[in-house]
């Protein structure tokens, strides 16, 4: 991966040293309003620090002016309470102030006291009310005054991510990088993951270059960062590019973990054509003393099933159970489909019943494989019973293929009335009859000798094909 250069990062405090602090300057002439504010501030601080929790809020409310506490006074009071963070945050809530300076002061107090959830909540509120440059500059300007912690800026990035404002999160990150401040690795990981999810793996790799692209970066990526990149490539079906990531990991001496291997195995096993490479990777993982997890086992089982090597898939399944790892819904789905695809319906049905007994619900693709194999064995009635039971399960909807398989099966047996009812149900779910369905009905009626319906269906099918061709030409 190409490296990028960046100026040597500066220390955070040196960058912020020129920022102004929160202070009260003495006026050149007597100002009654300022004098009243000073009295209000000192009295409020005294009440908050010295009175019991039950009485302090009522006494504080009694001294407040009808217009409430001025934002500048709130910041001064928060500054005085910064070593008592819970009290300071309670006062901020009491003040009901939405001023950006007050938000920043409260966030700094929470951050310096490692009250991460509280700081994140405050910044999440701020990002809904103010523009990103204003928030960043206010946090920077008040940083030293509250002796804050650097990760307050990470929390600002995370607040934007939580608010689904990815462009603002990236903008703040670039502002930090331009000032020599690097986000925490966990924050960088969240950013890369969000960018890759929304804009694709190429965008995720581009952000990685911005964050870690220097030849001698101050902060080196960890295995979680690389796992995020590998997962993004896998989800974008760019598994052929994972070699770039592995080379980068080796260059930076970042050791893969079990999740790394699980993603790599999933990419190799996706279609079963690279199962030998997957086995080499599996052996490499074992050689490093890394025990496979359920994701790794499921990936390899899927690869063997796709390759039609069911004995190896079952052997891995047994090894998994012996190692104390319970089979998941995905494990069962791989095995059921694998056995059905090689024509072993009986073993597939044993696994299907075991899966149901354990409370797992099969996906529609798995159900379709079972239906298809049942229809091939003239067990279409059983297939319909299975589909009806699955349809009672919340979240399950039959596919077009589900209906096509059963319609074909009943038509092959000459049971046209049931096939017609299924076709009507299919249409009610928005699946129009296509050539496969028409062909099934034509053969079915021909089998029972009803040539009149055969001719009528052939005419309908020809009209349908002609209409679809004309629509295609128009578009």
From TrEMBL:
Keywords: Repeat. InterPro entries: PPR_domain-containing, PPR_rpt, PROP1-like_PPR_dom, TPR-like_helical_dom_sf. It comes from the Eukaryota. The keyword Repeat applies. The keyword Membrane does not apply. Residues 347-466 form the PROP1-like PPR domain. PPR repeats lie at residues 257-292, 293-327, 328-362, 363-398, 399-433. NCBIfam families: PPR. PANTHER family: PENTATRICOPEPTIDE (PPR) REPEAT-CONTAINING PROTEIN, PF01535'-RELATED, PLASTID TRANSCRIPTIONALLY ACTIVE CHROMOSOME 2-LIKE PROTEIN. This is Pentatricopeptide repeat-containing protein At2g15980.
């Amino acid at each position: 991966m190409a490296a990028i250069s960046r100026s040597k990062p500066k220390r955070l405090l040196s960058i912020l040293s020129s920022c102004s602090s929160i202070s009260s300057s003495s006026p050149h002439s007597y100002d009654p309003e300022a004098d009243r504010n000073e009295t209000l501030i000192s009295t409020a601080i005294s009440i908050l620090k010295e009175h019991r929790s039950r009485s302090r809020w009522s006494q504080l409310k009694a001294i407040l002016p009808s217009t409430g506490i001025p934002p500048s006074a709130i910041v001064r009071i928060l500054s005085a309470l910064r070593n008592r963070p819970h009290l300071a945050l309670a006062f901020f809530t009491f003040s009901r102030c939405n001023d950006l300076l007050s938000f920043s002061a409260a966030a700094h107090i929470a951050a310096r006291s490692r009250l991460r959830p509280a700081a994140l909540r405050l910044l999440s509120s701020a990002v809904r009310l103010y523009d990103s440059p204003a928030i960043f500059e206010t946090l920077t300007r008040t940083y030293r005054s509250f002796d804050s912690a650097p990760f307050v800026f990470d929390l600002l990035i995370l607040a934007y991510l939580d608010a689904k404002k990815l462009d603002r999160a990236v903008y703040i990150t670039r502002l930090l990088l331009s000032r020599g401040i690097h986000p925490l690795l966990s924050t960088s990981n969240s950013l890369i993951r969000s960018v890759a999810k929304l804009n694709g793996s190429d965008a995720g790799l581009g952000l990685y270059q911005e964050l870690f692209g220097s030849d001698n970066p101050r902060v080196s990526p960890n295995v979680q960062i690389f796992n995020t990149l590998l997962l993004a490539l896998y989800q974008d079906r760019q598994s052929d590019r994972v070699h770039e990531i592995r080379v980068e990991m080796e260059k930076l001496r970042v050791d893969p973990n079990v999740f790394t291997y699980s993603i790599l195995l999933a990419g190799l096993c996706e279609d079963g054509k690279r199962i030998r490479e997957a086995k080499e990777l599996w052996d490499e993982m074992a050689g490093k003393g890394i025990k496979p997890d359920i994701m790794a086992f499921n990936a390899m089982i899927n690869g063997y099933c796709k390759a039609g090597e069911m004995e190896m898939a079952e052997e891995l399944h047994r090894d998994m159970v012996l190692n104390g790892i319970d089979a998941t819904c995905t494990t069962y789905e791989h095995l059921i489909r694998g056995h059905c695809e090689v024509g072993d319906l009986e073993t597939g049905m044993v696994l299907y019943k075991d899966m149901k007994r354990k409370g797992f619900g099969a996906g529609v693709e798995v159900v379709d494989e079972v239906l298809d194999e049942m229809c091939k064995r003239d067990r279409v009635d059983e297939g319909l019973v299975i589909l009806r039971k699955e349809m009672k399960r919340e979240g399950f909807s039959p596919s077009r293929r589900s209906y096509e398989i059963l319609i074909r099966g009943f038509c092959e047996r000459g049971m046209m009335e049931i096939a017609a009812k299924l076709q009507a149900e299919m249409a009610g779910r928005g699946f129009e009859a296509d050539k496969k369905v028409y062909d099934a009905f034509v053969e079915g009626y021909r089998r029972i000798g009803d040539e009149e319906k055969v001719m009528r269906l052939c005419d309908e099918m020809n009209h349908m094909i002609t209409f679809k061709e004309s629509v295609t030409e128009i578009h």
